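Researcher: Re-running this chain for the archive, since the previous output was lost when a drive failed. Same request as before.
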Amino acid sequence: MNFGLDRLLSDDALRAQLKGRRVALLAHPASVTKDLGHAVDALAACPEIELTAAFGPQHGMKGDLQDNMMESPDYRDPVHGFPVFSLYGEVRRPRDEWMETFDVVLIDLQDLGCRIYTYVTTLLYVLEAAAKHGKSVWVLDRPNPAGRPVEGQTLKPGWESFVGAGPMPMRHGMTMGELGLWFIDQFKLDVDYRVVEMQGWAPEAGPGFGWPLGERAWVNPSPNAPNLSMARAYAGTVMLEGATLSEGRGTTRPLELFGAPDIDARAVIAEMHVLAPEWLGGCTLRDMWFEPTFHKHVGKLCSGVQIHVDHPGYDHAAFKPWRVQALGFKAIRRLYPDYDLWRDFPYEYAFGKLPIDVINGGPGLREWVDDAAAGPGDLDEATRPDEAAWEEARRVFLLY
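Model: Regenerated structure tokens:
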């Protein structure tokens, strides 16, 4: 199959439309061709394309910064000489003067299919800036490795943030190109927009169910996104960034597991199966041990739960990562009623709100976990209408 970048590089007619126009590129380490050449170098080698600027999202164009809220500087590309502006530094929206350095921006970002992944918000901010300055936006589309399933509650009004660009559920099931179409409609943007579509993407086909396993190499789009298993689990495990539990940063399997020194993972798994076995379909939970080399619980032996989605028992349609992680929280709250579960700090520049609420676009998930009387049926009742509404709302914007 071909991603959007591959199509642009192989299609003379497409590239001809960029001739005579100043071109910028928004990219990160996973912005690569099928033979693993980076988009910057591949586009700079095209005689029709004049690259005059580039932009790096969170974690930087180089993808070197590990954690959240680690800002990247602006710099000049050491090979090609054009400026590289940081959209995760002093600002997260493009400055007006940056918008004067190009006529059309190519966006080539590998997403993970989750609302909280900040490349989604960066896409919106660039679209808004392009509308303001009369610039063109081309999205060079890439697969959503988590595929088409939808899960989670819709972000509530007033809870918009850098990890919540608009009223969508946690797992949106769209590509970046499709999300751009939705953003333009949702926010009534007047912008010249084009999606360079993929060829041959089959999101319902196994074993990849979104990612073309065996056809394309996986390149980390951010430092703690090392494989397809992480991408599949991320719409649930990302909530751990708002909890005191470790999400496995500082291990080789980040965001596929959770744990802490003061829990019993076997007991947690058993309680999860008692509470809502119907939420655990498609995956296998395994108790294990780990010792983070950095981040939460660094240097401490943790009892953990690993979520396995890379084995023959994986069922893509049945797997519900947001519910699995919610159930993990609920099990811990039931086993340890006074457990200090929620972190309190200005997560992604959202001050005065608990990180778990910012992540979920409202307090509903946390309130459900902390309410001793609330059961799985209550969360389902509050969530299913949002999921059904999104399934219908996104339908008109799907390209594949």
